[in-house]
Write a structure and sequence with these properties.
By secondary structure, the protein is α+β, with helices and mostly antiparallel strands. It has helices at about 5-20, 25-40, 40-50, 60-70, 80-85, 120-125, 160-170, 210-225, 240-250, 260-265, 270-280, 300-310, 315-340, 350-360, 370-380, 395-410, and strands at about 100-110, 110-120, 130, 140-145, 150-155, 175-180, 185-190, 195-200, 205-210, 230-235. The longest helix is centred in the C-terminal third of the chain and has 25 residues, at about 315-340. It is elongated, with a radius of gyration of 27 Å.
Length: about 425
């Protein structure tokens, strides 16, 4: 039997621990059990049960929690035999972080420093319980109501975490900033001669920004303890009001439309197809699939390619093969269109893009493109403002309209293969 994914484990643990957290006595029993059997600090278990969930914690702690609160499922549903044998007899040992901490950093102001940190170093802080999620200085949490019990849950976009983790695993993630805030009472100093931030003593850092990246690193580290990745590190010493202002300021950044944002993901298979087409001198639209002033809007083209050719889970090997195949298919169709009607060498509107890609995806004979594209464009006008190409492509309703028009076209023309 295949072991369930780590994401499924976290989801299962969250559903179980939130039910148990409704009962204070039972929550206390869980804390005492994990302390007695695995030596896991009561504070750690309490944070997991009542606030944070198991995401970001070590695989060992996740196993211990599962062993105590699991329902009908068995450890072998989520853990390998080697993990079960090892973790069953393990005792928690809180890692020792030696003080003072010496971090190479550039001083920006008296309370802001910029340096770098490795995933290995950050995981040492994690395992020493030095990374804290401060609910007063973080983005809105999610209120979960079960019966008469209310719980606040950390808001976590699991798909974003998984995407970051995959990119880190493939070494394609572009390192950016994790911001850690020192409590105001922290004893620290800065050596300008050596550009060193010296932290003499600290109980924990509040993570102000970069929580999803931190969880992604934690998940990858739990899978492979040799995993490492360099990250930009910002260390600040802000009072609560200033920490909140920073979160507000970061949230004011100009955001791209989700459709455009998706096109900028260069690990996406659909975008790889577009890059190949743009770089192929034998494609008549080479260099014209660009955002501003191009013939085809690549963001709209990208989501349509993804919708028709890259749906669902695809292995890396299958993805590479499909990129090559789809690129060839689109190039042949684009070349046919532009060589039979020069109008297709001018800008395509979104109705043209949607109609043409649908015909190509459905393997409609090229000889019928010239007649069908105008018919599909006219048919799509039935949706009026309801017709858009969004980050998921086009609607099922639109595709049904296309299908009926094509069926009628071949019926009227007594088409035979």
């Amino acid at each position: 039997m295949a072991i369930k994914s780590k994401e499924e484990l976290i989801k299962y643990l969250d559903s179980r621990r939130m039910r148990i957290a409704e009962d204070r006595k039972e929550t206390q029993n869980v804390c005492l059990y994990l302390k007695s059997k695995y030596n896991i600090p009561i504070g750690v278990t309490s944070d997991i049960m009542c606030r944070e969930g198991a995401a970001g914690y070590s695989r060992f702690i996740q196993f211990a929690l599962f062993e105590r609160i699991s329902g009908n499922l068995k450890p072998e549903d989520f853990f390998t035999k080697q993990e079960i044998d090892f973790y069953s007899h393990q005792r928690y040992e809180e890692p020792k972080v030696e003080f003072p901490l010496r971090i190479q950093a550039i001083q920006i102001t008296d309370d802001q420093y910029i340096g770098k940190i490795s995933a290995q170093e950050l995981m040492k802080y994690r395992d020493a319980q030095m990374i804290n999620y401060n609910t007063n200085t973080q983005r809105t949490m999610k209120l979960v109501i079960r019966g008469e019990t209310k719980q606040w849950k950390i808001t976590l976009d699991n798909s974003a975490v998984k995407s970051i983790q995959n990119n880190m695993h493939d070494k394609t993630f572009i390192s950016n900033t994790i911001t850690l805030n020192m409590p105001e009472e922290t004893d620290f100093s800065y050596d300008e001669d050596t550009c060193t931030l010296i932290i003499k003593e600290i109980k924990y850092f509040d993570i102000l920004d970069g929580y999803h990246r931190y969880i992604a690193m934690s998940n990858e580290f739990n899978t492979d303890s040799s995993f490492d990745y360099p990250m930009e590190l910002r260390i600040v010493c802000f009072p609560e009001y200033k920490a909140k202002q920073m979160i507000f300021q970061e949230d004011q950044k100009t955001k791209m439309k989700s459709l455009d944002s998706k096109y900028f993901d260069q690990t996406d298979n659909a975008n790889k197809v577009i890059a190949r087409l743009n770089g192929d001198p034998t494609c008549n639209l080479s260099g014209s699939l660009i955002m501003n002033g191009g013939i085809i809007n690549p963001a709209e083209l990208s989501v349509l390619i993804a919708q028709y050719w890259f749906r669902g889970q695809i292995s890396k090997a299958e993805g590479k093969a499909r990129v090559i195949s789809v690129t060839k298919t689109l190039k042949e169709s684009f070349n046919y269109l532009t060589e039979t009607d020069s109008a297709y060498l001018e800008e395509w509107d979104y109705r043209t893009i949607a109609a043409a890609i649908y015909l190509i995806a459905k393997k409609i004979p090229k000889k019928d493109y010239q007649q069908l594209i105008p018919l599909l464009k006219k048919g799509s006008e039935e949706l009026n403002k309801g017709f858009v190409i969004n980050n998921k492509g086009t609607s099922r309703k639109l595709q049904n309209i296309y299908g009926k028009i094509i069926d009628e076209f071949y019926e009227n023309n007594a088409y035979t293969n």
